[in-house]
Specification:
The chain has 581 residues and is an alpha/beta fold. It contains 22 helices and 10 strands. The longest helix has 50 residues. It binds adenosine-5'-triphosphate. It is a multi-pass membrane protein.
Length: 581
């Protein structure tokens, strides 16, 4: 059971309440209580009105006496018009203050949702690399959209429930002053209603949870499928996924049906339960306690009011339950991401003036040994080609160099300083990285290169594109550098995408350039052009290059070739060196 599941129910409600500034909560509570009290005064004044209108029996009622003596104390007459004004004034004040409270609630709900989303995005962005590898992307999308929205609705439900409960309490107090029997009856009828309809609340909660889980699974699957839709379409193998979605959709349909039924039934059954209890109450009041008709009518009004607000409070609780699974899901993702937050790195700022080194580094994924006591040094300005069979661990070696993975043993050093003493964010900021599976954003070529960082101009992007051998084709696109690349860059060819990714890695003038099979999709001439440009950067600007590639173009120009195989890292002589030997 996760922490979030343990905290479900009222623990989570408490978390939502405490997510709102205490002052705001207090203000909302105050406005709601004040509105309830104003209405309560209005309703309570009905009994003395009946008394003043001539119902002598009502005159002897404690509530009538209390209100009329307050009028005496402040020197006001027992005038029916005045009492009508008090009733109307109470109801109008309630309406006005409720409007104010609703404005506050609206603002707070918007803030709750926005804060939840901010917290979620912040936690996800700060998580370590290994966290993302284990999560379906759809999990984040569902949490960010529908589930965060539900959290806001749950807060709204809580304020409504608080409002109804406050009103119920006020009515109950008035009822207690009017008659202890009435108060007892109100408590009894409310209890009958709460207990008899509780099953519907539990049903709402369970169905909402099932629905949230299924929705998450559906969105995760759909996102995965859409990301990899092309080969499925090309091989006409998408039918299996249709069947999977149908399963999820069927389950969602079933839980929605049950949830709507539970909600509507709760609403529908409250009225007959109340009516039945009221009829029994009226019978006892008239026949057993021989209460006067006028008093019984007012008491009936008070009882109806009290029990119906209890009913509304119960409906709001049902709403909270229906939305609770939403915010517990948001917290689950946020908490999971927070638990995997990248630990604070060191303070040293590397300049890569001397180079970097692996010092007796070992690393494994479970049983799979990737590096075994690897030691090597790369001097600043060197071009290194890294080769090795598929799955040997070349990408993982780069992850270790960038602090995306931590060695089980040994130390990675930059300029002689261990990586854990270095500010890794500043270290990574000096790196240009072109991954094997590159993805362009659905945005312009310019935005894909600058990643939206305002410090880069069109000239910077053009300069980087020229270095990446991409300027000619970009200049010929319909909107030049402002052409939209399409979903994941699908409007460009594989080789064009690679060159834009190289430009993205060069635009911030890095000190270290990491190319992971970055030119694999290019024709030999274009690849040679990029290799020449990168070599020039290494010679003129001291750029250090680590190129994972089997292509001769890189192996031939490399100062050194490292080969990784079965966990062992060895230095190889390339053609030129072999000839010299
Ligand atoms: N996050 C991970 N968790 C568990 N195993 C992983 C993870 N990432 C990679 N691996 C495994 O580690 C091994 C090395 O993967 P890596 O991507 O580093 O190899 P590579 O040499 O770059 O391969 P290729 O040349 O095919 O790109 C593979 O067997 C892979 O299955």
């Amino acid at each position: 059971m996760t922490d979030t599941q343990k905290r479900s129910g009222f623990g989570l409600i408490w978390r939502i309440i405490t997510a709102v500034p205490p002052g705001r909560n207090a203000l909302v509570a105050l406005a709601i209580t004040f509105a309830g009290a104003a209405e309560g005064i209005g309703i309570a004044t009905v009994l003395p009105l009946v008394a003043v209108l001539g119902d002598n029996a009502s005159k002897s009622n404690a509530l009538s006496k209390a209100i009329l003596s307050v009028l005496d104390a402040i020197g006001l007459p027992h005038d029916p018009i005045l009492l009508l004004c008090i009733i109307g004034g109470g109801l109008l004040t309630k309406a006005a203050v409720t409007l104010l409270a609703l404005r506050l609630v609206g603002r707070t709900v918007a803030e709750v949702v926005a804060n939840l989303r901010l917290e979620l995005i912040d936690a996800v962005m700060r998580a370590r690399w290994s966290f993302y590898v284990r999560q379906p992307v759809g999990r984040f999308s569902t949490a960010l959209s529908g589930e965060a929205q539900k959290a806001g609705e749950a807060y709204n439900g809580m304020t409504q429930m608080f409002s109804q409960s406050t009103q119920a309490l006020i009515y109950l107090m008035i009822a207690a002053v009017a008659s202890w029997r009435l108060a007892l009856l109100a408590v009894l009828v409310s209890a009958i209603m709460i207990v008899s309809l509780n099953r519907l609340l539990v049903a709402s909660k369970n169905n909402a949870r099932a629905q949230t889980g299924r929705m998450r699974s559906l969105v995760s699957r759909l996102t995965d499928v859409l990301v990899g839709i092309k080969p499925m379409k090309a091989m006409a193998r998408q039918a299996r996924f249709n069947a999977l979605f149908t399963e999820d959709l069927k389950a969602i349909k079933k839980s929605i049906r049950r949830q709507v039924f539970a909600k509507n039934t709760n609403k529908a059954l409250q009225e007959p339960i109340l009516a039945l209890c009221l009829l029994i109450g009226i019978y006892f009041a008239l026949k057993v306690f021989a209460m006067p008709v006028g008093e019984v009518i007012v008491m009936g009004l008070l009882l109806t009011k009290t029990v119906s607000v209890v009913g509304k409070a119960q409906q709001e609780l049902q709403n909270i339950y229906a939305n609770e699974s939403g915010f517990s899901a948001v917290y689950e993702v946020t908490d999971a991401a927070r638990a995997e937050r990248e630990t604070a790195s060191g303070k040293a700022v590397p300049t890569l003036e001397r180079g970097f080194a692996f010092d007796d580094v070992s690393f494994a994924f479970g049983e799979r040994q990737i590096l075994r006591h690897a030691s090597f040094t790369v001097n600043a300005g060197e071009i290194i080609a890294l080769t090795g069979p598929s799955g040997a661990g070349k990408t993982t070696l780069v992850d270790l160099l960038l602090g995306l993975q931590e060695p089980a043993e040994g130390t990675v050093r930059v300029d002689g300083v261990p990586l854990h003493e270095i500010d890794v964010l500043k270290w990574r900021a000096q790196t240009g990285y072109v991954p094997q599976e590159l993805i362009l954003f659905h945005d312009s070529v310019f935005a894909n290169i600058t990643l939206g960082q305002p410090e880069f101009s069109h000239e910077d992007a053009e300069h980087a594109l020229r270095r990446a051998g991409a300027w000619d084709f970009v200049a010929n696109l319909s909107d030049g550098i402002d052409t939209i690349a399409g979903e994941r860059g699908a409007l460009l060819s594989g080789g064009q995408r690679q060159r834009i990714a190289v430009a993205r890695a060069l635009v911030h003038r890095p000190k270290l350039l990491i190319l992971d099979e970055a030119t694999s999709a290019l024709d030999p001439q274009t690849e040679q052009l990029i290799v020449r440009n990168v070599c020039q950067l290494a010679r003129e600007k001291g750029l250090t290059v680590l190129a994972i590639s089997h292509h001769p173009a890189w192996v031939e120009v490399a100062d050194r070739v490292l080969r990784l195989e079965d966990g062992d890292l060895v230095e190889q002589l390339h053609e030129g060196q072999r000839a010299a030997v």
